[in-house]
Structures are given as C-alpha cells and as structure tokens.
Design a protein that fits this description.
Mean pLDDT: 89
Number of helices: 7
Low-confidence stretches: none
CATH topology: Four Helix Bundle (Hemerythrin (Met), subunit A)
Structural class: mainly alpha
Number of domains: 1
Radius of gyration: 18 Å
Number of strands: 0
Length: about 190
C-alpha cells in the first residue's frame, strides 16, 4: 500500500539533492564566480524531463483518486495538477534564461537570478506541500484497493540519475551528488 508513497518520497529526496547542487551553482553565478554551466544545464534537463515523465503522473493518479474519495480535503489542498503545470512552466522559463546565459545573450543578471530563485523556491515548496499535506491526506482517504489499483496503473520509468542504469549525460551529476553527500557526513 505505501510502496507508491515510498517511491514518491525517494524521488522527492532525489529532486532535493539535485536542487541543492543547482542552488550552489546559482550562488556562484550570483557572486560573479564561474558556475559549472554544463552541470546546471543537465540538472534543469533532468528536472524538466523526469518529473513530468514519471513522477507527476503517479501523483496525478493519487490526486484523482483523492478527489473521488475525499473531495473536501482535495479542495482544501488546491489543484495539484495545476501545480505540476506551473512547475513545468517555471522550469521551461528558467531553462530559457540559462540558455541565454550560455549563449552570452544580453540579459540582466537580476532577471536570471529571479527566474532561478522562483523556480527553485517553487519546486521546494511544492515538494513540502506534497510531503506535509497531500501524502498524509492520501494515506487517510484511500483504501487498500485504491492503492492496489494505483500501483497496477503506474507506468514505471527508471530514474536516469538515481536508477540502476545511470544515463551517460548524468554521470557527472551523480558523482557530484555523492561527493556532496560524503562531505556532509564528515
């Protein structure tokens, strides 16, 4: 029953790790130091593709089921599918700003920073909303049969960074994530 939520929570932890690395790169940019633009670009690509391909469809199934079982709670939470759409829009907007930096296009530094911060802040607050309100509401409202049905209908897609088979473009990113994790444990 909670296998679906365990997978979603693992993905949230992974997204948070990647957002932390992106935040570090943005801080370099803000201080007029040289960030690893290639790494930042890979992060944005990952955060644009994997959540929409695999993560958000799972949550959308849960949300649709929650709307059926407990519409009042679902209404109080807001529209999760709209949140996912806004996140996709912010990701695309930040991706454009990042590409402009990579192309040396004329763009005020503040404009880039605003797009970066809005994207990162919204992504983090979205994760918190789901962890603190949505997942507990789903646990309370959905039956064992609902959870089985959701699991059967889920399309599984391996995470290209945190799965068993790391996609070639993400090897450097995965290595940096582990370096940071090791630094924090010391």
């Amino acid at each position: 029953m909670v296998k679906v939520l365990d997978a979603l929570r693992d993905e949230h932890r992974n997204f948070s790790r990647v957002l932390e690395i992106l935040t570090r790169q943005i801080e370099f940019f803000e201080k007029a130091e040289e960030p690893d633009y290639d790494l930042a670009e890979k992060i944005v690509e990952y955060l644009k593709i994997f959540p929409d391909l695999s993560h958000h469809p799972k949550e959308d199934l849960l949300y649709q089921k929650l709307c059926l079982r407990d519409p009042r709670t679902a209404d109080l939470m807001g529209d999760l599918e709209t949140e996912h759409q806004k996140l996709a829009e912010l990701t695309s907007a930040f991706e454009i700003k990042l590409k402009n930096v990579l192309l040396d296009a004329e763009q005020p530094r503040a404009e880039f920073m605003d797009a970066a911060n809005e994207f990162i802040d919204f992504f983090r607050s979205h994760i918190m909303l789901e962890e603190l309100r949505f997942f507990p509401a789903a646990l309370r409202a959905l039956s064992a049969e609902d959870w089985r049905e959701i699991e059967v209908n889920l399309a599984q897609s391996e995470d290209p960074i945190f799965g068993e088979n790391i996609a070639v473009p993400y090897v450097d990113l995965r290595n940096q994530i582990y370096e940071i994790a090791t630094e924090q444990q010391i």
